[in-house]
Amino acid sequence: MPVYQNWATPGAGNHYIFNSIMEADARYKFNNNDLVIVMWSCKEREDRYSNNKWLSDTNLSQEKTYGKKWVKNFGTDLRGFLIRDLGYIAGAQSTIQKASWEQFCLNPLTNIDDTKAVLDGVDLDSITEEIGREYWIKAFDKLCTGSDIDPYLDNADVIETYKDLFLNINKSLEGRWTFEYVKNRVAPNNDNHPTPLEALEFLNNVWPGNSLSIEAQNHARQWNVNHSLITRL
């Protein structure tokens, strides 16, 4: 790529991502010579533009920016977050059709409804965290391959309305970022975010044939050497 721009920012949610896509298109007019790559975030994030900058919170459960009262009143409606973010994704997908594009996802945008499972005699709370997490990830990743909606997904009616959107999104990073892997790795400063090398492995897995340069791949590998990342599998 002779020219590229990175519009990503740490902690940003899908509100920010959608608005950034629309702004980039308004400024530069996407066309078939462009490649647009989107990494959708989790839906439990709140982005606001204030005082000439975006406020991008971490997960709302941390109450970092908005405080406990705001989170209690407005920050816990997962159905509302899902409706909002799938609408953003629908609008963004329509816009980036003018360019070449790829879409990825940090972790599943959907949730499991434990109540439905219990009514069917399946107590998801009684299984191990590893198995429960794997079930959640696989239920989402199946949506991305066109499989039927899992019976235990929460807000299935919303998912059904927007189910075609998932066909344009690659399987989630969370799906490659397994519970066992995270539990058994030792990273600098106990940071459990993927390292550059782990992100590279994810990219090569879900987007084979990408044209990432040898220099960039070597940089990712060297980062692990420089930071002495130890992984025990």
Task: Name a few traits of the molecule.
45% helix, mainly alpha, 2 domains, two-stranded parallel ribbon, 233 residues, globular
Please give the alpha-carbon distance between the first and last residues: 36 Å
Major sheet attributes: 2 strands, parallel
Strand arrangement, major sheet: 1-4
Average predicted confidence as pLDDT: 84
Give the oligomer, counting copies of the same chain as homo and different chains as hetero: single chain
In N-to-C order, the SSE pattern is: HEEEHHEHHHHHHEHHE
Work out the radius of gyration. Answer: 19 Å
Broad structural category:
mainly alpha
The total strand number stands at 6
| Beta-strand proportion | 5-15%
Number of domains: 2
Tell me roughly what share of residues is in helical segments.
40-55%
Count of DSSP-assigned helices: 11
* Unreliable residue runs: none
| Coarse morphology | globular
Question: What topology does this entry show?
Answer:
Layout lengths: L13 H15 L6 E6 L6 E4 L2 E4 L10 H8 L3 H19 L3 E6 L8 H6 L9 H15 L12 H6 L1 H4 L6 H4 L2 H5 L1 E2 L9 H11 L7 H13 L3 E2 L2
Parallel strand pairs: 1-4
Antiparallel strand pairs: 2-3, 5-6
Helix pairs in contact: 1-3, 10-11
Summarize this structure briefly.
The protein is mainly alpha-helical and 233 residues long.
Describe what you observe in this structure.
- The chain is mainly α and 233 residues long.
- It folds into 2 domains: 14-175, no CATH class; 184-233, no CATH class.
- The chain is built from 11 helices and 6 strands.
- Helix 1 packs parallel to helix 3 (78-96) and helix 10 (196-206) packs antiparallel against helix 11.
- The longest helix is centred in the middle third of the chain and has 19 residues, at 78-96.
- The two termini are 36 Å apart.
- The relative contact order is 0.11.
